[in-house]
Amino acid sequence: MSNSKLLTGKTALITGCNRGIGKETLKQLIINGADVVCLIRKENSDFNAFAMPLAEENGVKIVTMSADFSDEESVKNAVRTLIKDKTRIDILINNAGVATGGLLQMTSMVTLHDVFQINFFSQVLLTQMISRIMMKQRCGSIINLGSVAGLDSFAGYTAYGSSKAALMFFTKTVARELAPYGIRVNAVAPGLTKTGMADAQEPKSADEMIGRTSFKRLGSPEEVANAIIFLVSDKASFITGQILRVDGGM
Amino acid sequence: MANLEKYNKVFCDTLEIKEDQLPGLQYQGVDLWDSVGHMSLVAAVEEAFGIMMETDDIINLSSYEKGKEILRKKYNVEF
User: Fold this and answer.
1) What pLDDT, on the 0 to 100 scale, is given for residue A3?
2) Interchain pair A136, B39: CB under 8 A
3) d(CA B42, CA B52)
4) B46 to chain A: which residues are within 8 Å by CB?
């Protein structure tokens, strides 16, 4: 997929692209010719050292903006700047998220609220605002990062799994609402993927998830990013409201 | 075209009503001002005045008069 530029002339906004799936997706966006607005929690030299040369090499523009996804006003301010600058947004990738595990009796309401704020409410807010730009353009593509943890049941996923389930239901609902404006909305649902989030998981729980896959292995961030790039590209022009599992056959 | 004239035209064209129906007109007061029509109305208002309304303002645009108030207070449109 990376040999053909699928996204030339498009501008993408991606959240949480400092590491893991987000970072790999950012790389694929750049390689595929998209200009990118990166909405990240904190700008850092490692990120700039990674993204800027890659952008230059591929002749695309990168803009980095800061937003704290636990703070709605911070997200709103970032988008207000984009609206003020009349920035075109063709693609929105809601990738930012937080992983947390814990049995029901060990999940505090504070944790539940915090996880939902980052994994669901801030994604809804961002979609609400960016889709207004897309509605004016009469086109756009939105991807939400779901999870198999929001589709299948695993012990210990009350907060994370529920937040991802909400995000994936939201994906289907909003796909119907935005279709009249030429906007497609889809989600990918990765299985356990080789990222920092997977490393933080209890080995027993990770082994159980790997054991459920047909390939008996972790996914790679690149494999998830490839699915995202396909869905945001015009190659997927008749696909909306779908949850694409990228899970090695669970 | 004066702003009031522009504003009235947006309402009349989008909701397919006559100008004498505008005073006191409320959301869902005519057939075409339903939830889908509301978004068309917002898009037409934004286009006419070169603005982009915030979500809270879209929700609060509950009548012909309220719309004027929002445009005046938050988007510096003088009537």
Assistant:
1) 52
2) no
3) 9
4) 136
